[in-house]
Design a protein that fits this description.
Distance between the termini: 3 Å
Number of domains: 2
Radius of gyration: 19 Å
Number of helices: 11
Largest sheet: none
Order of helices and strands: HHHHHHHHHHH
CATH class of the largest domain: Mainly Alpha
Shape: elongated
Number of strands: 0
Strand content: under 5%
Structural class: mainly alpha
């Protein structure tokens, strides 16, 4: 999904995903082509855009299996298909199924592209959202710290995009009893918001957007470094 993107029932690996989806036999799998994968991606992307997530899921499962058969289990295209399937599970509230998919996508991307690039960021962001929705703030905190570091690298420590990761970070810190740390982060959020206030002439002319209204999760950030984060 071009969230391209970017949800415990799915067993990881080709056999597990096939068992979950069930649409292909061994002989059919051998005949799969890159065009088949493109067609599957187009199908579940269309259903995603129509918000028909339940129908999109089995097609995305088939896409994961097809990508594994075509390219092996450690390919970037497999990571993207895993990300997309995980995102669809998120959208249907199936967080326990999303988590292992985002973990596996992250592992592939870290091996291929390193731990601090745009590809890793997409998986880290999705994994952080999943952890929070599963009420696993202890697991979310180090993931959010990595998201913050990547955003600071690609933007700056005072860019409004950083707030999208700082806010859930503060929430998780507070839930884990780290009240002083949480208040420090909230003070930083306010400071960034103040720095990004439009000037008075801009506010009157409508050119400014006012104080940024950060999302509670880091799911929506500007195009870079996550240019492919939506289906």
């Amino acid at each position: 999904m071009h969230r391209r993107v970017a949800v415990a029932g799915i067993v990881m690996g080709g056999v597990g995903v096939l068992a979950a989806a069930g649409p292909l036999g061994a002989e059919q799998a051998k005949k799969r082509t890159e065009q088949d994968l493109e067609n599957l991606t187009a199908q579940y992307t269309k259903l995603y855009r129509q918000t028909d997530y339940e129908k999109a899921i089995p097609i995305a499962q088939e896409a994961v299996f097809t990508a594994e058969q075509l390219f092996g289990e450690k390919d970037a295209r497999v990571a993207q298909a895993l990300n997309d399937l995980g995102s669809l599970y998120e959208l249907t509230g199936q967080w326990a199924k999303a988590e292992p998919l985002h973990r596996r996508a992250l592992s592939i991307r870290e091996d291929l592209f390193g731990p601090a690039g745009p590809d890793a960021f997409q998986s880290l962001k999705n994994l952080a959202v999943t952890f929070r929705m599963e009420d696993k703030c202890a697991d979310a905190i180090p993931v959010l710290e990595r998201c913050i570091a990547i955003l600071e690298k690609f933007y700056s420590p005072t860019h409004r995009a950083v707030v999208d990761a700082l806010l859930p970070y503060a929430i998780c810190l507070k839930k884990e009893g780290r009240t002083i740390d949480a208040e420090t982060v909230r003070a930083r959020i306010k400071s960034i918001a103040d720095l990004n206030q439009p000037s008075a002439p801009e506010a009157k002319s409508g050119e400014g957007s006012g104080t940024p209204k950060p999302s509670e999760t880091p799911a929506e950030t500007p195009a870079s470094p996550d240019a492919s984060s939506t289906p």
